[in-house]
Amino acid sequence: MLTINEIFHSIQGESTHTGRPCVFVRLTACDLRCSWCDTPYAFTEGRKMSIDDVISRVDTYGCDLVEITGGEPLLQRDVYPLMEQLLASGKTVMVETGGHRSIKDVPADVIRIMDVKCPGSGESDKNHWENLDLLTSRDEVKFVIRDRSDYEFAKDIVARHDLLGRTAAVLFSPVHGVMPAKDLAAWILADHLPVRLQLQAHKYIWDANTRGV
Ligand code: SF4
Using omega within 30 degrees of 0 as the cis cutoff, is the peptide bond preceding 71 cis? Predict the structure, then answer.
């Protein structure tokens, strides 16, 4: 069984898959409290569903791209058989994780979008650093950036772990409504840093506080 916050069909707003229709499966609960978290409703709200029920609901949307997110999806043990069964049914499966839980048991065919928490989140001491060694050329790593010191932190981690050479993409995402995207763009350009500036597309298509999109 899984505790599910919401399942919905929308446009992928993050990662290199931005713009693609996608079914989102949002799992309940998180053991972090990032200062800029935009899904606090997923901390506790949810209902129990069997894996088969989740798969049936996903199938109703007729969409081959599925993202498992949260909250923190890797907190629930049954997320692993869910990922296996979605893959077996022919879906392209992505998981978005906060980066503080080990990703070692995520099936190899799942695309991992993993956060590295910067100091501005208030949770950077929780990063599970061993995860960085497990990332592959399928995976993407995301830094949510609140200010210049977060940017310097992210830049240092990217260089020290050769993340640009070892992953599909390094995403620098400004905290919506706090960090001006044009300032982050200027820093990236000044440093000739080949990362991707990521804006959360769903917050521009819909209102930033709209749920289920
Ligand atoms: S890890 Fe994600 S869900 Fe958890 S508090 Fe941070 S942003 Fe929110």
Answer: yes
Span 148-190, pLDDT tens digits: 999 999 999 999 999 999 999 999 999 999 999 999 999 999 9
pTM above threshold 0.70: yes
Whether ligand 1 lies within 6 angstroms of the CB of 99 is answered as: no
Let me know: does 23 contact 34? Beta carbons within 8 Å: no
Q: Which is nearest to 165 in space by CA: 194, 130, 145?
A: 194
CB distance 37 to ligand 1 below 6 Å: yes
CB 138 within 8 A of CB 92: no
Kindly report the protein residue whose alpha carbon is nearest to atom 1 of ligand 1: 98
Whether the CA torsion 97, 72, 88, 24 is positive or negative: it is negative
What is the per-residue pLDDT across 74-100, written as a single tens digit (0 to 9) for each? 999 999 999 999 999 999 999 999 999
What would the two tokens of residue 47 be? 């209902």
